[in-house]
Amino acid sequence: MGLLDILLGRSKPAAPDLDQLFGLPSAAVTLEAATGFRPTGSGAVCFATVEGAAFTQTHREVRALLDADAGREGPPVELTRDDYGYSWLVSRRSPDELPDLVNDLHAVNSAMEADGFGPQLLCSLVGFEGTEGDGDRGRRLALVYLYKRGTFYPFAPLPGRPERRDNALELRVKAALTGDLRMEEDLGRWFPVWGAPGL
Questions:
Q1: Sheet of strand 121-130: strand arrangement
Q2: What is the mean pLDDT of residues 182-194?
Q3: How far is CA 140 from CA 126, 130, 165, 177, in A?
Q4: Which residues, 6 or more positions from 21, have their beta carbon under 8 angstroms from its beta carbon?
Q5: Which of 42, 94, 101, 158 is the residue whose CA sits 20 to 30 A from 78?
Q6: pTM for this one?
Q7: Is 32 helix (H, G, I), strand (E, B) or coil?
Q8: Which tens digits make up the pLDDT trace of 72-98?
């Protein structure tokens, strides 16, 4: 950061810190205690769509890495594309395997970063489902990690209401998890992830 940046009040963007993902298992315990939401076992990494042999090789490496995880059933990761043109690498595990799911997401992000695809990485998310109280049973929620900010925010779509979100629930989740995760303070960066796989 140069002198001109200091004088003009510009700040250096936060560097990605993938180790922040490892805070999710303990945050999930806090989240369940505070709101009744439990992990679904689904998670995903979103990135700007990439074509070409280099990305195909990276995807192969990620699959081989996750295939090496003994005892895993089903495909380690699926590659899908959403209606907005973004690509998602989706991992599904048992709901009680959140630490393993976090390892999967960390491995995918790290492999893409190491192969030069860091600038294309947008976010990672882990899905949660309401289990009790206040009409939350069956409701979906995601904790979204912003790769370029190194922060998390909650995203809670309203069931049966296309492209509407439950801001009150999102703020309640933020308040509950502030001590567990680095939460994104700029609400303008709480981007909706409509149609995200795993949510």
A1: 78-81, 86-92, 37-48, 121-130, 140-146, 151-155
A2: 95
A3: 11, 6, 11, 17
A4: 102, 105, 106, 109, 124, 145
A5: 158
A6: 0.85
A7: helix
A8: 555 567 888 888 888 898 999 999 999
